[in-house]
């Protein structure tokens, strides 16, 4: 971020637009300058959004100011994923609700700041589990697990996070709200004709997947957990397209 007046203008704009906490003081910036890695980078500031509207408003203000944002859950990442010179958006304090458990259909809808152990406790009475269990399960959030495609001690049997994510509600960089889940090929063709950002994604990504399919099949490492790059191997030929699988990891 450039000069202090620019930062002040951003802080004022964020305080006006965001209902949650907007913290740009030195102590908060110091607290968020580390995760579980060896890195230490002081963020520009910190936001603790209360809801999706807050996230939308914060993204708009930071986009206008040309400032990067960095989402954060429990901050237990080992490779510096949760630190950076950005406005950190901490989802763990307020956006941590388990919205709905649909036991018959076998899914739950949660906010990104839900801690993995809390989800496990809520699912247990329904005899359901969320497959991957990181060693940090009592503080790692589902948003962070999605960001890292986390796995754990039982992942060989129950899979990695990508295997447990059916659908993701997200905001694109331009602020467009999207819901990514399984979309049948006929519907992909319909969406690909749209003029908006989602239309671009449904045009370009299947095209990239098909163009690279052979090479990805040949050259992606044959290991159980691979988090380097996009999951271009998560699109079965002729099957539904689920862009949520690209957001994971
Ligand atoms: C002692 C120790 C043991 C560990 N054991 C394991 C293990 O067994 N298995 C394993 O896979 N990992 C393990 N980890 C790594 C880490 O705990 C996991 O990857 C964990 O799932 C990260 O969750 P978090 O909430 O802390 O995410 P964070 O570190 O806060 O964030 C992780 C990534 O997700 C992004 N993110 C977070 N929230 C959102 C959001 N709402 N929207 C978009 N992006 C978001 C962040 O920007 C970042 O890139 C371990 C770490 C430690 C320190």
UniProtKB/TrEMBL annotation:
It comes from Candidatus Segetimicrobium genomatis. GO terms for biological process: lactate catabolic process. It holds the Pfam family FAD_binding_4. Residues 39-211 form the FAD-binding PCMH-type domain. SUPFAM superfamilies: FAD-binding/transporter-associated domain-like. One of its GO terms (molecular function) is FAD binding. InterPro entries: FAD-bd_PCMH (IPR016166), FAD-bd_PCMH-like_sf (IPR036318), FAD-bd_PCMH_sub2 (IPR016169), Oxid_FAD_bind_N (IPR006094). This is FAD-binding oxidoreductase.
């Amino acid at each position: 971020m450039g000069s202090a007046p620019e930062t002040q203008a951003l802080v004022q704009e964020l305080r006006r637009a965001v209902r949650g906490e907007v913290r740009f003081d030195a102590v908060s910036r110091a607290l968020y300058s580390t995760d579980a890695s060896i890195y230490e980078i002081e963020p520009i500031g910190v936001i603790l959004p209360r809801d999706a509207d807050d996230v939308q408003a914060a993204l708009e203000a930071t986009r206008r100011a040309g400032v990067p944002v960095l989402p954060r859950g429990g901050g237990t990442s080992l490779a510096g994923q949760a630190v950076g010179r950005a406005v950190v958006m901490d989802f763990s304090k307020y956006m941590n609700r388990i919205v709905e458990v649909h036991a018959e259909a076998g899914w739950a809808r949660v906010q990104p700041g839900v801690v993995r152990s809390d989800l496990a406790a809520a699912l247990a009475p329904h005899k359901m589990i969320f497959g991957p269990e990181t060693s940090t399960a009592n503080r790692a959030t589902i948003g962070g697990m999605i960001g890292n495609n986390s796995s754990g001690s039982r992942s060989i049997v129950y899979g990695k996070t990508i295997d447990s994510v059916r659908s993701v509600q997200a905001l694109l960089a331009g602020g467009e709200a999207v819901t990514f889940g399984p979309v049948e090929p006929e519907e992909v063709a319909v969406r690909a004709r749209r003029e908006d950002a989602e239309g671009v994604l449904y045009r370009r990504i299947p095209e990239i997947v098909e163009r690279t399919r052979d090479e990805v099949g040949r050259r992606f490492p044959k290991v159980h957990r691979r988090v380097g790059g996009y999951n271009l191997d998560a699109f079965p030929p002729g099957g539904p397209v689920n862009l949520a699988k690209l957001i994971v990891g």
